[in-house]
């Protein structure tokens, strides 16, 4: 009965993850009154479900209400606050969180995430007075990309900003300063250039890992080993528990002290200390709660069954942080714990250590696959085998060495030697992972329809079930949709066009039934490649593994920066550009020429102003026509190039137009707009971009012409079914309660 009530309350709390909109206050009040009535009628499971639902929705609304006031979006204010957590250094950029920010001019969110380009060194716990250009939470929205806006909400961050100037008011103190000092000591210790990885294992600070390191970990399914997670906390707690249990078993434990409560308390104390060292981030909090519940169950409630500690930990976390369910880590951590219970509980016989590890990896590989597919995360092909040696190496050797070396740093040389040994092992570990990742990259399958996902989930759970379960032999047949289900394709004579949301840049996919062309690839900046992080995952999520043509309009970074990542991640038939000499040699780009071709009865035509000199004017222009409906992609051509196009093109009209140069004042002349006469205009830009795109005068000209504007900032990725004569669909319009209105 108690488990039923716990499950009902958890189900109500988890409902928040699936809501497109938060209910109105009157509806929540009605649910609360209904819950009280059900309690009076002794219908506790239903009442607890409603109470959990109400509490989760209220917490979600509080988080939304704590966001930056829309009137302050884009404004610069002087404010004061305290640096929390460890600041992240990325080249010349420092990123950190500011708590308890306040300004005399306006009310501010409790927590801000700020960036300081070229700023001075900052330390945790310091108080600063800063001039900040504030921004409301906003994220790129694409078929497949990290939802930064959701992440900010789940972390309790109500706004972001860029620092213009600042002054330190006071230095830090307490545990935050202690963690900062430890990080500086570790980074100053020679460890075979793996000091950043050591800070990740000891302090949970992953900023020292390079982009290549993260990519390697993702391809090999070992990210969980390099961020402090439940596995690290659990291993340390287990080692301390085992130490006390071993002493008691061999007669070395004082008889006056009961060994079991001491073992449980020692394990929990170790988890708390390690959690404090890691800064008690949300995943670490979750891990400490789970470890605490398991140890409490082992001490006093073992007779109630193994499901109790898992449900208790989930319930405590959701009551404390209902928005935790919005993060993939929540589902993956509890999914992993539940799978381990499924494959080890109630099985006959004892397994050796290696066989147990093998069974655990088999369970993780199959059991977590539905979660990875549902969350849109990459699936590591090599992960199951890699983790067979990686888990014991990192968890039982490198992490203890790193913690021991950190503890012994006050000694003149011993701590340095131990950290150096841990760093050397990490260097060998990463070299092995890099070789494996090169041969077996991660797999990002195309999105499955719900029916196919359900069949695959049922099949994989059946495969993990004990032998003798009815229907287990049919499981392999139920897995087949994973390999044979493909995303829908445009019909013959039509094209699907997706203007990806890439911030201040351009990237457009044009897909026919059997072919695909990518027009531009977004920008690349230090530490963030749009081609790698946004465009490539979206292409794979759409079921594409190769492109017939990648057409880079010209060599400016906001159009060509991501091209190399696309080249490395997909098979390309041909690369064409208006400025081939300005692109990396690996692309082997061919010059843009006036040409026309057809794919599946869809016509493509390219054009370039031959007399152009300046980079923008050299842009390769593409016209696509499907069933009489046209789309014109213009790169960054300016007014002079527009005039040349009007003079040389034989038929100007196009229903869809991508505004030249992101809506810059130097483009979109009245002559050009009148010639094209579009009914809809696409504007690809970044929010609060430094160039002021689109210019108000340009917007006014398009509006006066009667065109409908599709702005990537307001619409996210825009999807057009060219040839259907239907309006475009903006992905930001898909209901999500955390999306900015």
UniProtKB/TrEMBL annotation:
Protein's membrane topology: Multi-pass membrane protein
Keywords recorded for this protein, A-Z: Cell membrane, Membrane, Transmembrane, Transmembrane helix
Keyword flag Membrane: yes
Residue stretches spanning the membrane: 7-40, 46-64, 233-252, 258-280, 301-323, 329-348, 360-379, 385-404, 411-430, 442-464
Keyword flag Ribosomal protein: no
Domain Metallo-beta-lactamase residue range list: 504-687
Superkingdom field: Bacteria
Gene3D superfamilies on file: Ribonuclease Z/Hydroxyacylglutathione hydrolase-like
One Pfam family this sequence matches: Competence
GO biological process: establishment of competence for transformation
Gene Ontology CC: one annotated term: plasma membrane
Protein name: Competence protein ComEC
UniProt organism field: Pseudomonas segetis
């Amino acid at each position: 009965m108690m488990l039923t009530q716990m499950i009902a309350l958890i189900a109500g709390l988890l409902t928040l993850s699936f809501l497109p909109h938060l209910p109105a206050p009157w509806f929540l009040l009605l649910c609360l009154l209904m819950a009280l009535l059900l309690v009076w009628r002794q219908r506790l499971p239903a009442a607890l479900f409603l109470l959990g639902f109400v509490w989760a929705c209220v917490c979600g609304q509080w988080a939304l209400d704590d966001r930056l006031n829309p009137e302050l979006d884009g404004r610069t204010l002087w404010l004061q606050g305290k640096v929390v957590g460890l600041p992240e250094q990325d080249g010349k950029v420092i990123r950190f969180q500011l708590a308890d920010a306040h300004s005399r001019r306006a009310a501010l969110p409790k927590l801000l995430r700020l960036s300081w380009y070229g700023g001075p060194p900052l330390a945790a716990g310091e108080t600063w007075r800063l001039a900040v250009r504030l921004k409301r939470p906003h994220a790129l929205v694409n078929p497949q990309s990290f939802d930064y806006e959701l992440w900010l909400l789940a972390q309790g961050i109500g706004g972001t900003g860029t620092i213009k100037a600042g002054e330190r008011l006071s230095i830090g103190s307490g545990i935050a300063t202690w963690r900062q000092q430890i990080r500086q000591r570790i980074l100053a210790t020679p460890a075979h250039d793996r000091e950043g990885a050591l800070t990740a294992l000891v302090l949970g600070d992953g900023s020292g890992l390079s982009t290549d390191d993260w990519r390697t970990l993702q391809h090999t399914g070992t990210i969980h080993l390099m961020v402090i997670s439940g596995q690290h906390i659990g291993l340390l707690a287990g080692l301390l528990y085992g130490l006390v249990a071993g002493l008691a078993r061999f007669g070395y434990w004082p008889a006056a002290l009961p060994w079991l409560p001491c073992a449980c308390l020692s394990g929990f104390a170790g988890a708390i200390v390690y959690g404090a060292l890691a800064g008690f981030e949300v995943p670490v909090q979750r891990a400490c709660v789970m470890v605490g519940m398991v140890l409490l169950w082992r001490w006093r409630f073992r007779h109630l069954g193994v499901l109790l500690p898992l449900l208790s930990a989930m319930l405590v976390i959701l009551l404390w942080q209902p928005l935790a369910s919005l993060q993939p880590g929540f589902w993956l951590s509890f999914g992993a714990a539940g799978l381990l219970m499924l494959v080890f509980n109630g099985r006959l016989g004892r397994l050796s250590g290696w066989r147990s590890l093998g069974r655990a990896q088999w369970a993780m590989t199959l059991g977590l696959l539905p979660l990875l597919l549902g969350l849109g995360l990459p699936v590591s092909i090599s992960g199951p085998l890699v983790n067979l040696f990686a888990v014991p190496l990192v968890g039982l050797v490198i992490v203890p060495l790193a913690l021991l070396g950190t503890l012994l740093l006050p000694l003149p040389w011993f701590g340095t030697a131990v950290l150096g040994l841990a760093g050397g092992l990490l260097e060998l570990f990463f070299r092995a992972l890099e070789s494996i990742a090169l041969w077996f990259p991660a797999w990002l399958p195309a999105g499955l329809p719900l029916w196919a996902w359900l069949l695959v989930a049922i099949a994989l759970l059946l495969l993990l079930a004990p032998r003798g379960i009815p229907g287990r032999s049919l499981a392999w047949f139920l897995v087949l949709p994973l390999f044979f289900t493909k995303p829908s394709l445009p019909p013959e004579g039509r094209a699907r066009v997706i203007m990806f949301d890439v911030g201040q840049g351009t990237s457009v996919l044009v897909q026919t039934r059997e072919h695909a062309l990518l027009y531009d690839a977004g920008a690349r900046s230090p530490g963030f490649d749009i081609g790698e992080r946004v465009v490539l995952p979206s292409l794979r999520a759409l079921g594409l593994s190769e492109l017939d043509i990648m057409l880079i309009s010209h060599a400016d970074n906001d159009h060509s920066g991501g091209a190399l990542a696309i080249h490395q991640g997909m098979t390309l038939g041909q690369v064409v550009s208006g400025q081939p000499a300005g692109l990396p040699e690996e692309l082997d780009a061919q010059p843009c020429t006036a040409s026309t071709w057809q794919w599946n009865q869809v016509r493509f035509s390219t054009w370039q102003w031959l007399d152009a000199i300046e980079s923008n004017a050299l842009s390769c222009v593409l016209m696509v026509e499907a069933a009489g409906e046209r789309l014109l992609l213009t790169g960054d051509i300016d007014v002079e190039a527009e005039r040349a196009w009007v003079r040389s093109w034989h038929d100007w009209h196009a229903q869809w137009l991508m505004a030249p140069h992101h809506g810059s004042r130097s483009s979109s002349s009245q002559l050009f707009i009148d010639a094209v006469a579009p009914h809809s205009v696409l504007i690809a830009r970044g929010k609060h971009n430094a160039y002021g795109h689109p210019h108000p005068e340009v917007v006014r000209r398009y509006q006066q012409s009667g065109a409908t504007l599709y702005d990537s900032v307001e619409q996210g990725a825009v999807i057009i079914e060219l040839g259907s004569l239907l309006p475009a669909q903006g992905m930001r319009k898909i209901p999500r309660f955390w999306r900015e209105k």
